[in-house]
Amino acid sequence: MIIWADGEVTAVRASWPGAVELSVRRNDQAAEAPAETRALAYTALMATPEVGDRVLLNVAALDRGLGTGGYALVIAVLDPNGRVTAQPPQPAGHLVKARYLPLQAMVAGADEQGSEHHDLLREADSIDGMPVVVADLHSALPPILLAIHHDRPATRVVYVMTDQGALPLAFSRSVAELRSAGLLTGTVTVGQAFGGDLEAVSVHSGLLAARLALGADIAVVTQGPGNLGTGTRWGFSGVEAGEVVNAAGTLGGRPVGALRISGADERARHRGLSHHSVTAYGRVALLPADLAVPDFAQAARLEISQSADVAELAESVVSGAASLTLHRQILVDLNGLDQALRRSPVPLSTMGRNFDGDPAYFLASAAAGRHAASLLEAHH
For residues 270 and 283, what is the distance between their CA atoms, to the nearest angstrom? Predict the structure, then answer.
């Protein structure tokens, strides 16, 4: 299950809150191993590595070419004799995440006893109509935020990251850059995920923490980077989008479903309206949501490549969304969202495709952000 390696840090390539990217010269003799390997260390889990340090690595996914972002993952920083060097910051709480794994992390939960927010959350049961944007993939987060900021710049948006993808929030450079650009007010990590401004046990308590402790106007809920799919009807991590709709609705929120749509995916199950959205919203969600249906019929008016191809999706997307009869289908005007997406402070990328490579995907996500922002205007 794990392939171990060790090596010497030769360079610090980049850093952002919670993580540092390294170049490491591996000491193992694997023929396929390059002389220099990109490695990622989470600074909440270990002492921050420096040039010349010896590091212990997990290279299993990297050596098998799986989606770890091309990284070896640092397990520990060692001295020349193989002993652990310094300790990471000491844990402040009693909530354990990545439980019973060798790298389980102790964090201070917003909802645990002793937290400054415990009394606030102890009997909390409502998020008071807060729009909750739900998306299948982590790559939907930037376009959702860009649309909200475009339409309502002062909105307080909190990202609630679930544990269906990467567990450390620090794996997402996008989150760090979106935060730096002023598009995110705060973050909450739930389930086994960790590293947010606040930690919570469940999606339910995470939404309550976002609303009550961080003052969110809108929450956006997606898995972390690293979607898992098996090409089967039920074997994909985005199934949880339907469960998030249920959580948001149960707490008196206003769920807004972002539709996963593609005009460029080579897989038939993801062309047009993805089966992921059909399954999550059509079979898993038991409470109604607003489904943001992008008005692709106006694609010719947008500054996008493939405008004709996107326009061809309009009828099938509208009819596909209409088949999800539990929900309210909201046709969302896309005017101005193309320019908002082109001003993104982070690279827009999904399945290796950028905005010009698959504009339908990013516009569909942005449509959900626009609709959520409009609900605030209506509420006020």
Answer: 17
Q: 64-71, long-range: CB within 8 Å, 24+ apart, which pairs?
A: 67/226, 68/226, 69/40, 69/171, 69/225, 70/38, 71/21, 71/38, 71/39, 71/40
Q: Which helix (H) or strand (E) holds 220?
A: strand 218-223
The distance from CA 248 to its chain's CA centroid, rounded to whole angstroms, is 17
Question: What sign does the CA torsion over 340, 345, 348, 354 have?
Answer: positive
What's the DSSP call for residue 136? S
Closest CA to 170 of 24, 268, 286, 46: 46
Nearest residue to 334 via CA among 308, 300, 286, 378: 300
Segment 24-29 long-range contacts (CB within 8 Å, at least 24 positions apart) = 24/55, 24/57, 24/72, 26/57, 26/59, 26/72
Is this prediction's pTM over 0.85? yes
Give the C-alpha separation, 187 to 249, whole Å: 20
In eight-state DSSP terms, residue 351 is: T
Full pLDDT tens readout for the chain, 380 residues:
788 998 999 999 999 999 999 999 998 765 565 678 999 999 999 999 999 999 999 998 888 877 666 899 999 999 887 788 888 888 888 999 999 988 899 999 999 999 999 999 999 999 999 999 999 999 999 999 999 999 999 999 999 999 999 999 999 999 999 999 999 999 999 999 999 999 999 999 999 999 999 999 999 999 999 888 888 889 999 899 999 999 999 999 999 999 999 876 667 676 769 888 999 999 999 999 999 999 999 999 998 988 888 998 999 999 999 999 999 999 999 999 999 999 999 999 998 899 999 999 999 999 999 999 999 976 65
- Give the separation between CA 12 and CA 23, rounded to whole angstroms: 6
What is the number of alpha carbons within 13 Å of residue 321 lying toward its C-beta? 26
DSSP 297: G
Pairing verdict, β 95-97 and 54-58? unpaired
